[in-house]
Write the structure tokens for this entry.
Amino acid sequence: MKKISFINEKIKKYNKKIYVPGDKSLSIRFVLIASQAIGKSTAYNLLKSEDVMNALKTIKKLGINYRIKKNFCEIDGKGLGGFKFKNNTIINAGNSGTLARLILGLLINSKKKVILKGDKSLSKRDFSRVILPMKKFGQNIDSKNNKLPIGIKGTNYPTPINYIESKASAQVKSCILLAAMKTNGITNIKCIPSRDHTERLYKYLKLPIKIKKEKKFELISFKGTKNYKAFNYTIPGDISSASFFIVLTLLTKNSKILIKNVNVNNSRTGIIDILKKMNGKIKIKNKKIYKGEESADIECKYSPNLKGIKINPKINSRAIDELPLIFCLVCAKAKGVSYAKKLGELRHKEQDRLKFVLKFLKMIGVKVIEKNNNLKIYGNPDLKLKQSYIIKNFMKDHRAFMLACIAALTLGGKKWIIHDKDSIDTSFPNFISLLKNLGAKIH
């Protein structure tokens, strides 16, 4: 696969129906939670990306067998104490922060040492937010500056904990819930609401989880040591992947798209709420509930009258992966000024995505002001690009690569040269082919 893509012209109008790959968050959670079940679990439409394959390789190294067929994946779980592996086993999470953080929870009672590694990008990210609660459980962790590589050894008697999670991080919350499964007692979490895929799976599996919603926080309690049976799961499409095609359509004259069977869990649909308030023509159709998760078809149409808005900070966690896409393209093309606050969490992704947003907007000539992780973006509905642009050195951030492609196809320009094409393998391997099916010319 070539590592550089070239785009020389905007995409022309289209009217299509598409499917996007299976949800990455659900795919990784299925792999990890199925590895702890008793018996054979089967997932249909599992995302076949590097991040998910690294999750499968991880459970294999920990003694759990799996099989990938054409349309499904089977995992032979051995229960809460089923991991068997050699001392100093090396696990490479690649680029996946979700896998790297969640696996700490499953290793809470490991009797032998594991060395957790990652790629260059992941090795720059801070793991203190999961190291702190895991140490409270009794896990022994050896790390330098709270970054990978990390040495992990569990405890024979994981202690239930009470923990306040104040960063709206689903990864931290899920890591704690996975560790709590192996404790003899009740773990309590007070947290700002964030993605809740783990909680929904626990409820579907009839695990003893209780959730109480308060004004600003959620109180979650979980009682551990209950084994559970294997399960089957059909994974809906990933709304983070769908978001690129939503924005492409909103900005492409006379275009329309129907994206079938997408996960529309309320903790993930912040992008829909934001874009609708900006006058984006989006409809949710055929909504249904499947094993605790909502899925639906998303219909989008070209939206020539986009307007700037004040984005409520409460929505940030529900659109955290899609915010750079909204800022760099929709806010850039909207009439008026857009405001967004409390964006510090964007600095803790595959790269500092807030820094990327600032650099990108300035590159395409859009005025932007950043102060204390707050943004003010001055939109320009008449924005038309005529220069050539080179996008590189973004730490193999798959969303930065895809954002740049959508920018080239909607904003124009003489030529776009976009590096690190292979970064999309982590989450959306068929992104380019799907764009070409809509008529995009990418070389």
About this structure: Residues 398-411 form the longest helix (14 residues). The chain has twelve helices and 23 strands.
